[in-house]
Amino acid sequence: MVRLDLGSVVLRRMRLEDIEAVKGLIKEGCEGTENRLILHLLTRPLALFMLAVLSSILRCVLHSFILALVIPVFIVIIYLKLTLPRSTGILGARRPYWDYVGSTYLAERDSELENPYSRMARPVGVRGKAQEKAKRKKKKEEKGKEAENHDMEDLQDRARVAGEVWVVDCDGEVIGCVSREPVNRSGATRICRLVVQSWYRREGLGSLLVQCLTNREKERGSRRVYAHVPFPSRVGELFFRKLGYRLQGEVADGEEVLNKDFEEPQKGWLGFPVTKVFVKDL
């Protein structure tokens, strides 16, 4: 773990050159999550009943108890490995395809979130500022040339569907990200795919990213934030509870929840929920 100065990081929209780094972060954050999710689905009563029926049928055909037991489980695991990321996404996302992730950089380019710790950051010299400015200018020019080679109308449509990806930039390195997905209801915001690089965890970076994004959405008129967390993720559940979120449908402060919850958890194989929805009223 590396000691991080929160005032030195920049919270900004993902750019074209950040796509591969964001992919790597999401893959790192998903290590083990997919396997735990598959185990969760396989151990549901209905799934166990179906596997038992298939094993009984194969037992009569193969005359081998071990093969009859292993083959159905193996087939289901392969099926879930192939279809789970496409049907439900990863880390609670509804849009798993990499091309959608890559198209989110188009809208509101170079936007930044206000970092409350930035005033405590160490000052940067004039030379360092000039170099950073020249570097950003060069990246903008390269990004403009790259964009001209694409069908802009198609990419803009994808960007509207994909939503936004916000990243944490530390000296030019992407060390964290979170996705804000589009919601068809006014006054609501959905976030998912919160990942922090393993070397920088437990430094308050994830909390800073979520809170700054939430403040931005509140200024834009959002009244409620939904956070989708993978079903077996105990760490994700504790994280959002510490930030004041509650599990959708829970009773808050001993009273009934007045506002109706509209967000549905994502469902996977046989209709079993694969995400938990956490809610916070702004």
Structure characteristics:
alpha+beta; single chain; 9 helices; Aminopeptidase; GNAT_dom; transferase; 282 residues; transmembrane; Acyl_CoA_acyltransferase
Please describe the topology of this protein:
Blueprint: E1 10-13, H1 19-29, H2 33-42, H3 45-62, H4 65-88, H5 98-102, E2 112-113, H6 126-148, H7 152-162, E3 164-170, E4 173-181, E5 188-196, H8 205-219, E6 224-230, H9 234-242, E7 246-247, E8 275-281
Parallel strand pairs: 5-6
Antiparallel strand pairs: 1-2, 1-3, 3-4, 4-5, 6-8, 7-8
Structure description:
It contains nine helices and eight strands. It is of the alpha+beta class and 282 residues long. The chain folds into two domains: 216 residues, Aminopeptidase (3-Layer(aba) Sandwich), CATH 3.40.630; 56 residues, no CATH class. Strands 2-1-3-4-5-6-8-7 form an eight-stranded mixed β-sheet, with helices on both faces. Helix 3 crosses helix 4. It is elongated, with a radius of gyration of 22 Å. The protein starts with 9 loop residues before the first strand and ends with a strand.
